Amino acid sequence: MPERIVPVKVYAKVLGALLVLTAATCAISFIDMGKLNTVVAVVIAFVKASLVAAIFMHLRYSRRLMRIVVVAGLFWLGILIALTMGDYLTRGWR
Amino acid sequence: MAETLVADQHARGAATAHQFDDFEQQRDAATMGMWIFLVTEIMFFGGLFASYVVYRVIYPTAFAVASLALDITLGTLNTAVLLISSFTMALAVFGSQTGRRRALVGGLALTILLGLVFLAIKIYEYYQKYVEHHIPGPSFAFPAPYTEPAKMYFTLYFAMTGLHAAHMIVGCGLLTVLIVMAWRGRFTPEYHSPVELSGLYWHFVDIIWIFLYPLLYLIGRHLE
Question: I want to staple B141 with a disulfide (CB 3.0 to 4.6 A). Which of B122, B133, B184, B213 is the partner?
Answer without folding.
Answer: B133
